[in-house]
Amino acid sequence: MKMRLWIVVFATLASATLASAQPVFRGSEIFPADEFAARRAKVMAKIGDGVAVIQGTVERPGEQPFRQNNQFFYLCGIVEPRAILVIDGRDKRATAYLQPRNERREQRQFGPNLYPGPEAVKETGLDAVVDRAEFGAAVAAWAKDARVVFTPFRAEVLGEASASDPAAMWRAIKADPWDGRVSREEAFVAKLKAAAPASEVKDLDPIIDTLRRIKSPREIAIIKEATRATGLGIMEAMRDAEPGMREFELMAAADFAFKKAGSYGPSYFALIGTGKNTFYTHYNRDTAVLAADDWVQIDYGPDYKYYQGDITRVFPAGGRFTPRQREFYSIYLQLYRSILSSITVHVAPRDIIKAAVVKMDAAIAAFTFTDPKIKAAAVAFADRYRNSKSNSLGHDVGMEVHDVRGTNPPETLEPGMVFTIEPAMQIEDERMSMRLEDMLVITESGCQNISAFVPIEIADVEKLAAQKGLSQYRLK
């Protein structure tokens, strides 16, 4: 009886958590003020006597939780709509311009907000927090001195996107003959040029992007938390899966784990494919039914305290891999680990690839193949790396799942870099594909796989897939 009661309570809490949990963290709840101050100091060093101006995002339409854009949050952590941050390279001061206090909004709707005054200065560590109405006078002063003004040119990122996504969207909108709007950032640049015609307006994004490439110890600690939430979500989906379910039901299991950890929402749409859907790297329809002999590929992660997680795993829908799937998975895993085991600090990715190919060739030569198509796929996998001219192993992860790298990125892997590898091995005519992905942190001594706790060996995957998941405890 106690067990039945626990199951009912668990299911009820799970349903309530999924429906309502949407935490909105201020910067002061994530990092101390000196973390943001250190970032602003680096910007000051780059802009000389210039001024950097960054807009916060606007209010969300309707009953939607507010999330700040990444470039603004990175430099001050303020989570308020229509905020403006000014970093003065000459005077070595940072000022936020906020909307005045709205007591009705606070008391009857959204709770306390941040507004101009000494309390905001104390919380943010800025030199001043003043009324947004004063921003025009600041611009007039820069115009008088013809100071160089730096501001982001690229469209803002608000979560569930990487920098290239909104940038592409706004290019398409601008080029649309039946639309033609420009992004808020492009409009802001035009207004700055009109208000300060003698000032040169430069793009601030390359400066911030370059700083974001190397993560601080505090950032890495948050990314590890995000990765733990990601792994728990992936594992919950692996437990939950059973033939007859639809792909989107696995997303629900992962979402529960993400929200339980305190995530704002997903980092990107759930890439959950079963059967031939695994062939498509960004498949996201999530409506297919799982069959007993299918394997499932899940690539998903949360937006956690403005940082992202990104892990991919493959597992059998029916709990056990078929003999052919085991052969495919086994050789793929050896090739994947050939790359993982070759990654180290202060080495160029192109040289890591060369070392990995030697290991791949040895693994293929020693493997007992029974299926010529699987052997051909493995050889093609190794040849793709052998013939690669890239100096990249995968994509960076940070405030965006495909994180920015800045201008003139270093040729070698250096401490503080965070990225994933996610190579695919495929039998194209059968639409059979496999792709694993792990979160990797470059340290002073090498490379740390911070998602290694998520099962990857066949025996461990099958053991987890055999366990009961959330769906077995839900209310009917």
Keyphrases for this structure?
476 residues, alpha+beta, Creatine Amidinohydrolase, Chain A, domain 1, Creatine Amidinohydrolase, 2 domains, six-stranded mixed sheet, four-stranded antiparallel sheet, 15 helices, 18 strands, globular
Rg to the nearest angstrom? Answer: 25 Å
Write down the overall geometry.
Answer: globular
Mean of all residue-level pLDDT scores: 93
CATH class of the largest domain: Alpha Beta
Number of strands: 18
CATH superfamily of the largest domain: Creatinase/methionine aminopeptidase superfamily
- Helicity, in percent? 40-55%
The assigned structural class equals: alpha+beta
Instruction: Report the uncertain regions.
Output: 1-20
How many domains would you count in the coordinates? 2
Give me the CATH architecture of the largest domain, please: Alpha-Beta Complex
| Number of discrete helical segments | 15
Strand content: 15-25%
Characterization of the model:
- The protein is an alpha+beta fold.
- It has 2 domains: 18-212, Creatine Amidinohydrolase, Chain A, domain 1; 217-473, Creatinase/methionine aminopeptidase superfamily (Creatine Amidinohydrolase, Alpha-Beta Complex), CATH 3.90.230.10.
- It is built from 15 helices and 18 strands.
- The strands form 5 sheets. It has a 6-stranded mixed sheet, sandwiched between helices. A 4-stranded antiparallel sheet has the order 13-14-17-18, with no helix packed on it.
- The two termini are 17 Å apart.
- Residues 1-20 have low confidence and may be disordered.
